[in-house]
Amino acid sequence: MRRRDIGMLAAAMAGLGAAPARAQAWPTRAVRVIVPYSAGGATDIVARIVTEAAGREAGQSFVVENRGGGASIPGTQAVATAPPDGYTLGFIDTALVINPGLFGPRLPYDAMRDLAPVGLVATSPLVFLAHPDVPARSLAEATARIRDRAGQSNIGHAGNGTAIHLASAQLLLAADAQAALVAYRGGGPMLTAALAHEVDYVFSSIPACKPHIEAGRLRALAVTGARRSAVLPEVPTFAESGLPAVDAQPFFGVVAPAGTPAEVLERANALLVRQASKPAIAARLAGIGYEVAATDRARFAAIIQADTAKWTEVIRRSNITVD
After folding, report:
1. Helix, strand or coil for residue 161?
2. What's the pLDDT at 132?
3. How many CA atoms are closer than 13 Å to the CA of 135, on its beta-carbon side?
4. What is the mean pLDDT of residues 292-299?
5. Strand, helix or coil at 165?
6. Which of 87, 84, 90 minimizes the C-alpha distance to 30?
7. φ, ψ at 64 (rounded to 5°)
8. Which contacts (CB < 8 Å, 24+ apart) does range 106-112 have?
9. Can you tell me whether residue 28 is helix, strand or coil?
10. Helix, strand, coil shares of the chain as percentages rounded to 5?
11. 114 with 121: CB under 8 angstroms?
């Protein structure tokens, strides 16, 4: 071979070896992890548990930056427009797949185009609850009562377009029933209203409602998810109760700006997403009502695409709009 050809071959071989080296090296400095919510909420809690463990393993800081407000849109946009170098990631939740159906072309980003999935981390089953004064001791009795009362029953939710709102809408579609959907300014006020029997039913996350179930202040009728919750093993799933189409289950995952190198995304998946599968982290998440659901990048991309289509259809059929 001529000396020039040998040099070109050597350069090509060096290029082939560069990607794994870069992946192994990342991160070499602090990584910013944007959470598009205020501190203390569910997404923030999961993000801090996982990033703390990832930082210990990587020997670099994963710094959580809270950017709350605006239905998670400003914080998510900050991820979508960040340099695709692996040093800005986003820790997102189900709003990512709900917002396209709510806002359509008003969204300043396209999740499919502008974000790169890193992986799903965990899910949080929802519990459908009734006030004890409501004479329904099962999901079947509750849905029959809602149908019989022809719009006189009411279901509280945590705000227009929230995962809990869409879970309520999905239930009514699946049960072919009508009820008034009553909006509150967040999950806390919603549960307060349920405890006071201002509303008959609510969906809630397990961590928020478990103390009220144990005290008999609210009655758990069914839980979303493919299997019963380890935290509430006595509560049947919606599938067991005859409504498998009710599958609303908030998720928590990691994304990066589109264009982030694939090898960095794989390393981020190994550091952040797979942390949740480690026994100590999984037990910590389970103890507060979350279920580990660590996936690879392709599986998370498929979930984002399927869930966006699903919730867009629920929003359309339920005539849900936002200002």
Report:
1. coil
2. 98
3. 3
4. 96
5. helix
6. 87
7. -75, 130
8. 107/73, 108/73, 108/77, 109/76, 109/77, 109/80, 109/81, 111/76, 111/255, 111/304, 111/308, 112/304, 112/305, 112/308
9. coil
10. 50, 20, 35
11. no
Q: What are phi and psi of 266, to 5 degrees?
A: -65, -40
Q: Is the pLDDT of residue 241 over 90?
A: yes
- DSSP reduced 3-state for 25: helix
What is the DSSP pairing of strand 31-35 with strand 88-93?
Answer: parallel
Whether the CB-CB separation of 127 and 206 falls below 8 Å is answered with: yes
- CA–CA separation, 225 and 128 (whole Å): 12
The answer to whether 97 and 308 have CB atoms below 8 angstroms apart is yes
Provide the pLDDT for residue 9.
40
In DSSP terms, 116 is beta-bridged to 256
Mean pLDDT of the chain: 92
Within 10 angstroms of residue 30's Cβ, the number of other Cβ atoms is 12
pLDDT for the residue numbered 128: 98
Q: Which of 131, 135, 133, 126 is nearest to 165 (CA)?
A: 126
Query: Above 60 in pLDDT, residue 8?
Result: no
Q: What is the pLDDT of residues 225-240, one digit of tens each?
A: 999 998 899 999 999 9
Count of all residues that appear for the chain in the document: 323
Contacts with 82 (C-beta within 8 Å, 6 or more apart), sequence order: 32, 34, 88, 257
CB atoms under 10 Å from CB of 94, counted, come to 23
User: Going along the chain, which residue ranges are E strands?
Assistant: 31-35, 62-66, 88-93, 115-123, 126-130, 154-157, 180-183, 201-205, 219-223, 251-257, 291-292
How far apart CA 67 and CA 210 sit, in angstroms, is 28
The residue with tokens 């998670």 is 72
User: Which strands make up the sheet holding 219-223, listed edge to edge?
Assistant: 180-183, 154-157, 201-205, 126-130, 219-223
User: From edge to edge, which strands make up the β-sheet containing 115-123?
Assistant: 62-66, 31-35, 88-93, 251-257, 115-123, 291-292
Q: Which residue has the tokens 């170098």?
A: 85
